[in-house]
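Researcher: I'd like a structural prediction for the single chain below. Treat it as a standalone chain; there are no partners to consider.
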Amino acid sequence: MARQAGYHRDHLTRKLKRETGFGLRATRNRMRLETAQAALRQEASIAEASAKAGFDDPNYFARWFRRQTGQTPSAYLESR
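Model: Treating it as a single chain, here is the predicted structure.
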């Protein structure tokens, strides 16, 4: 992301944090979470949602999703 914007990663992180209150990692995580939740709402499987959000391992994705939202992807699907 930093390369595409033409910035060094550290500079972009400071700039994002100053302007939005979120660093590069938090911004990436927020974007990944929004992508995953949209995929799950569109009835994608957990593996498909994982891939769309940029994860290679659906098991890691499930743990990451639970840390981000407090619920598993399966529970998120059931609540929809």
